[in-house]
């Protein structure tokens, strides 16, 4: 014969034995969250990012590139320059802005009393589009995350969008570069200035004066930052 729970408690109580009962019902117990090691968010690192970029196959440019062009320079730079995409020389050597336009950009930096070692420089796209055509929307979208992570790692004080494609992409606009230059915008809370692309200046020498004005404007804006 088994005693009912009430009778059992009455007997125990009569014997002076106090029974402590849990106030938790099974429903009130919170189910522990399952531990899933893949869900742990690790801080980003240059090493992880570099490896991801060099193995990237998110768009079809991975089938035509010689190699990815990650970007280079000072990892703690105050200035972050962003171009469009690697050209032939960049694709061959895996470094940004090393062709003729890159040499002019280096000269422009010198005019700003900056060197390539002072700045970080990268492109909207990490792979060369065939025949240097303009980047396609899907390519820009797939590559966007890499650039955003580079900016987050460097934490620059100022971003310079070099040329129309970089400026329009970062500012999500179709406005002409001639209209975008000379203003201060924000990209992820970082001041951004758009300048003419050096390859455009190589074609249009008469615009060189405007390029110099752009650089002066960038320097003035930088000096006014806290
Ligand atoms: N033009 C760009 O926009 N980026 C490069 O790296 C080279 C040329």
Provide key terms for this protein:
alpha/beta; Uracil-DNA Glycosylase, subunit E; six-stranded mixed sheet; binds uracil; 11% strand; 226 residues; elongated; 9 helices
Task: Summarize the topology.
Blueprint: H1 5-14, H2 46-54, E1 72-73, E2 79-83, H3 88-93, H4 100-111, E3 120-123, H5 137-154, E4 158-162, H6 164-171, H7 177-180, E5 185-187, E6 190-195, H8 198-203, H9 208-224
Parallel strand pairs: 2-3, 2-4, 4-6
Antiparallel strand pairs: 1-3, 5-6
This protein binds uracil.
Describe this structure in words.
The protein has 226 residues and is α/β, with parallel strands linked by helices. It has a single domain, classed as Uracil-DNA glycosylase-like domain (Uracil-DNA Glycosylase, subunit E). It has nine helices and six strands; from the N terminus they run ααββααβαβααββαα. β5 and β6 form a beta hairpin. The protein is elongated. The site of uracil has 12 residues, from α4.
Question: Briefly, what is this?
Answer:
The chain is 40% helix and 11% strand.
As for the number of domains, it is: 1
Tell me the span between the first and last alpha carbons. 85 Å
Structural class assignment: alpha/beta
Fraction of helical residues: 25-40%
Evaluate the radius of gyration: 29 Å
CATH architecture: 3-Layer(aba) Sandwich
- Examine the coordinates and then state which fold CATH places here, giving the name of the CATH topology: Uracil-DNA Glycosylase, subunit E
Q: Strands across the major sheet, in which order?
A: 1-3-2-4-6-5
The global form is elongated
CATH class: Alpha Beta
